[in-house]
Amino acid sequence: DCQLTAIWLFLLLLDYSLNGTDENQQEQPNCLFPRSIPGEVVTENNTSFLSISEKSRASLNGTLTVVVLPSFYTLIFLIGLPANALALWVLTTKVEKLPSTVFLINLATADLLLCLLLPLKISYYFLGNHWPFGEAMCRFTTMAFYGNMYCSIILLACISMDRYLAVAHPFFARSFRSSAFAMGICAVVWVVAVLFTLPLTVHRQSFPLYETKQTLCHDVLPWEQEEQHYYYFIILIACGFLTPFLIMVFSCGITLWVLLGSGEKYAMAAKLTALMLISVTAFYSPSHILLLLDYSRSCLRKEGTFYVPYMASLALSTCNSCVDPFIYYYVSEEFRLKVKRRLFGHRKDSAVSIKTSKETSIPTSKKPNYVPH
């Protein structure tokens, strides 16, 4: 089971990191950095290096970091790339462009772009946390990785709100719910995701590690730069995760209440709605919870204490891009039929309205037999 395996890996890395930390390790006066390992700048021969403790260096070069994490990313890449590519292909060529379909196309695009970034991270970790691709690519990869994550979260919130409006307020929703409106919302989401993560391109992200041949990307940053990132990530958590997540909880809660009150006929639609919320909670919450908990204990942080579990939580978040196609697309019998006909050369069908998990026959609060499109 993909979800259980991913969560097990995260808990294993969390236990390893916390139990392997020296409680007597000397702290720096300004300890705000659970997300990465803070380093001291050392200048030698006009070249700036970052120096870190031996324990932090051991975390960087441990088996779990340079073997388990890249292996996990490889698995996500091998599953997520073809799954999202196939979903995007069918959604863009064989499915009528309903509002929900537009959101799903953009979600599949975000997931696919994230999968395309993974080979760079896989190479980085398998090379022993060494980044050979240059500063510009490091900045772009860091921005794109976080940008795609928050783009997916916001799109999932839009999908849940779209379903809520279609189920609970069908007549009001029909007055503005259109493909053009959905495309406009998606365009805004992409712009917001870029603006959220653009600050990561302002500061230098790759540094050579002192007395080694390693060049690190985003994992070790100067203390002063991390202090600026502290306030940035607090805002990012509030706007990029907490707000969309609360919207999802509200929307999915009302949708579930309507579906469950309509009898066994809509049990599958209710299960899929619940599964969407569970998936987002399981895959995206750990990294943000780690940040919030640790930022609330500013005097108790040890350098590098949360580096390994945070890296594990980011790896866990990529599972959502792997699972999305199966949860949101392939659960539809009509969608599976389209895929099989395309793969096995059956005759072409005209584009029809498929009922995905976002477009299944569902009741509304006022007209139980109404099927929103």
Automatic annotation (TrEMBL):
Residues 83-328 form the G-protein coupled receptors family 1 profile domain. One of its GO terms (cellular component) is plasma membrane. GO terms for molecular function: protease binding; thrombin-activated receptor activity. It is found in: Cell membrane. GO terms for biological process: phospholipase C-activating G protein-coupled receptor signaling pathway; platelet aggregation; positive regulation of release of sequestered calcium ion into cytosol; positive regulation of Rho protein signal transduction. InterPro entries: GPCR_Rhodpsn, GPCR_Rhodpsn_7TM, Prot_act_rcpt_4, Protea_act_rcpt. Keywords: Cell membrane, Disulfide bond, G-protein coupled receptor, Glycoprotein, Membrane, Receptor, Signal, Transducer, Transmembrane, Transmembrane helix. The keyword rRNA-binding does not apply. Residues 1-20 form the signal peptide. It holds the Pfam family 7tm_1. It comes from the Eukaryota. The chain crosses the membrane at residues 72-91, 103-127, 139-159, 180-202, 230-260, 272-295, 307-331. Disulfide bonds join C138-C217. It is a multi-pass membrane protein. PROSITE patterns: G_PROTEIN_RECEP_F1_1, G_PROTEIN_RECEP_F1_2. The keyword Acyltransferase does not apply. Belongs to the G-protein coupled receptor 1 family. This is F2R like thrombin or trypsin receptor 3. It comes from Pseudonaja textilis (Eastern brown snake).
